[in-house]
């Protein structure tokens, strides 16, 4: 019997319900009002009163409205067909909806129940299996989508039967398993999982040991992110968070990409909708959308569903990770999610933490980031979820609680700087403040030694040092004037400008420059370090400036030329002559 309740109080989308039976936190309920049923989630229980957050507009809701509790948490439906999907935070399929917005109380099916999938069995009768073990496979586009023992299954099962190869829809029973009590249970191609609970079902979660290539030089060369790693991009409004994240989404070396657009303006999301289906994946030459799922909850959608959207996105990634795939999760912006938490916490009149955010904000953010990672599955295969979130601190203040909490949780920090953006030095990632803790991992160092170049990390540190010395020189020049400092200051300054213009800056809107593969990054870094290792003599600082400006010009042209093309080598020759 379901627990029922009656609406007692309403503060915006926080509704107090008097219940007639047991309810638990995070349980889902439906409130009936004006002929529709609105989904809500229990966020606190106090005696016979439950505080629930409604995922929709509560207009017209009244005291006395009836509530029915479902006895389950907010769940995501998992199965073939999630890729190419565009969903809202509650996994409503936005491509099947009728109008521009979903009607209140309208919930759509996330999976197409009719589509037939080409199924191939993996498990055999008699096999012993546990949750997350692979029973069979379907081709989702070109990706092998594993049909697994549902994650909720506890204990060991024996496979009784598996469907032979053939075409089936998601609701077909593709395997029958026998549990330890001798009872048979059916497995279809779809299962549900509560979004706030991390999917386990793997053997171990070791530290990441390789890097995920993004084609963005400031990331891959200077502060690489690990496959299965975490990073975040804080930056004031208009500094390029979204552009950078989209570049990573388009170019990141991953099998599956999930983008969570959280609380940002709707026109940006519309851009994703219209742009992404057109894009070609540089790794496979196929449509990018074939391996992408978009979850969106824009600023004009109900605030409570923002939280749902990031968790839904993470759960979908974990699902594909369990298939042995590399997944990349991008969330823009996690600040909007945190603001939603703040609104609810304030409505519940909880004791506020810093800037009125909930006291446990740090823990919530850490727990979320902790769900990313590389895992070794029960069968020895590996899978990964790499997570990069953006943070939009008000006024660019990096001391605010969301940035500080995220800094504790994420291992890469890509700080976008207003003054770099103002100078159009894109991507505006600050080279000295930003960091990647993965550069300190011996296993990552070893990986870079092997795959990029022996001693690579030392080279990265050298180039960072050039930037640092350039900054110091520039400060001295500003104080003492061009003529007031030794020539070496000018040389150091211009060496750092060279690094800035050729390595750090990258045109996200140029077909060639936008994507710089690691091999090319290695070539360019070696070239730049070679140039910077030389001593230069100049008559005066203007000659120095002229020399480096010409050099920068040639090198930038090189960045815009196809790698190893005739043109590319022509610029390379010209550079070599200039420094000879
Ligand atoms: N890498 C880049 N290359 C060229 N232009 C950029 C780049 N990054 C940002 N921009 C410019 O800055 C504008 C704002 O970027 P956006 O990502 O929307 O900022 P945010 O998400 O931080 O508010 C873009 O519309 C674009 O004109
Ligand atoms: Mg943005």
Q: Could you walk me through the main structural features you see in this protein, from its secondary elements to its overall organization?
A:
This protein has 580 residues and is of the alpha+beta class. The chain folds into four domains: 4-74, Elongation Factor Tu (Ef-tu), domain 3 (Beta Barrel); 117-190, RNA polymerase II/Efflux pump adaptor protein, barrel-sandwich hybrid domain (OB fold (Dihydrolipoamide Acetyltransferase, E2P), Beta Barrel); 202-435, 3-Layer(aba) Sandwich (Rossmann fold), CATH 3.40.50; 456-579, Bovine Mitochondrial F1-atpase, Atp Synthase Beta Chain, Chain D, domain 3 (Bovine Mitochondrial F1-ATPase, ATP Synthase Beta Chain, Chain D, domain3, Orthogonal Bundle), CATH 1.10.1140.10. The protein has helices spanning 217-222, 241-251, 266-275, 304-321, 334-347, 361-369, 401-409, 418-422, 442-451, 456-480, 487-504, 518-533, 541-559, 566-579, and strands at residues 4-11, 14-19, 27-33, 36-46, 49-54, 66-73, 75-78, 86-88, 117-121, 128-129, 134-140, 143-148, 157-162, 166-168, 175-178, 184-187, 191-194, 202-204, 230-234, 256-262, 292-297, 326-332, 373-377, 382-391, 412-413, 435-436. Strands 8, 18, 19, 20, 21, 22, 23, 24, 25 and 26 form a ten-stranded mixed β-sheet that branches. The chain is globular and about 90 Å long. The model has no long low-confidence stretch (mean pLDDT 94). It binds adenosine-5'-diphosphate and magnesium ion. Magnesium ion is lined by residues 241-242, 264, 268, 332.
């Amino acid at each position: 019997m379901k627990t029922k309740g009656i609406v007692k109080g309403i503060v915006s989308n926080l509704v107090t319900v008097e219940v007639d039976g047991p309810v638990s936190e995070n349980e889902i309920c439906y409130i009936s009002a004006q002929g529709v049923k609105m989904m809500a989630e229990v966020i606190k229980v106090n005696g016979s009163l439950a505080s629930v957050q409604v995922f929709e507009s509560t207009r017209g809701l009244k005291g006395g409205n009836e509530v029915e509790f479902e006895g389950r948490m907010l769940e995501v439906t998992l199965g073939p067909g999630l890729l190419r999907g565009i969903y809202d935070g509650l996994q409503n399929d936005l491509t099947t909806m009728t109008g521009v917005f979903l009607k209140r109380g309208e919930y759509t099916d996330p999976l197409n129940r009719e589509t037939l999938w080409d199924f191939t069995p993996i498990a055999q009768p008699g096999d012993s299996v546990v949750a997350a073990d692979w029973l069979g496979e379907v081709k989702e586009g070109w990706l092998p989508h594993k049909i697994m023992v549902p994650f909720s299954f506890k204990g060991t099962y024996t496979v009784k039967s598996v469907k032979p190869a053939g075409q089936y829809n998601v609701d077909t029973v593709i395997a029958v398993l026998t549990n330890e009590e001798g009872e048979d249970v059916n497995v279809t191609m779809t299962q549900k999982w509560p979004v706030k609970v991390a999917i386990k079902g793997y053997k171990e979660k070791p530290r990441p040991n390789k890097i995920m290539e993004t084609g963005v030089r400031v990331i891959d060369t200077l502060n690489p992110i690990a496959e299965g790693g975490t990073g975040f991009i804080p930056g004031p409004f208009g500094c390029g968070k979204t552009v950078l994240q989209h570049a990573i989404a388009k170019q990141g070396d991953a099998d599956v990409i999930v983008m969570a657009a959280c609380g940002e303006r709707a026109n940006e999301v519309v851009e994703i909708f219209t742009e992404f289906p057109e894009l070609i994946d540089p790794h496979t030459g196929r449509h990018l959308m074939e391996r992408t799922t978009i979850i969106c909850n824009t600023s004009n959608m109900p605030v409570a569903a923002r939280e749902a959207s990031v968790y839904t996105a993470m759960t979908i990634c974990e699902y594909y990770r369990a298939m042995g795939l590399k997944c990349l999760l991008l969330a823009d912006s996690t600040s909007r999610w945190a603001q939603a938490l703040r609104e609810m916490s304030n409505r519940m009149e909880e004791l506020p933490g810093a800037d009125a955010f909930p006291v446990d904000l740090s823990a919530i953010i850490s727990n979320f980031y902790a769900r990313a990672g590389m895992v070794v599955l029960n069968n020895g295969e590996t899978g990964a979820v790499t997570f990069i979130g953006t943070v939009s601190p008000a006024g660019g203040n990096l001391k605010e609680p969301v940035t500080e909490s995220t800094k504790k949780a994420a291992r890469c920090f890509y700080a976008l700087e207003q003054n770099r953006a103002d100078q159009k030095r894109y991507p505006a990632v600050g080279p000295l403040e930003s960091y990647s803790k993965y550069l300190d991992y011996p296993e990552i160092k070893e990986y870079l030694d092997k795959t990029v170049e022996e001693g690579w990390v030392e080279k990265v540190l050298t180039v960072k040092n050039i930037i640092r010395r350039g900054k110091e020189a520039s400060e001295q020049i500003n104080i003492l004037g061009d003529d007031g400092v030794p020539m070496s200051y000018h040389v150091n300054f211009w060496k750092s400008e060279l690094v800035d213009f050729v390595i750090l800056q990258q045109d996200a809107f140029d077909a060639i420059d936008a994507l710089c593969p690691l091999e090319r990054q290695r070539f360019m870094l070696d070239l730049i370090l070679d140039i910077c290792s030389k001593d230069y003599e100049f008559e005066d600082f203007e000659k120095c400036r002229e020399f480096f400006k010409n050099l920068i010009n040639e090198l930038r042209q090189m960045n815009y030329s196809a790698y190893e093309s005739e043109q590319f080598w022509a610029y390379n020759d010209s550079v070599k002559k200039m420094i000879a």
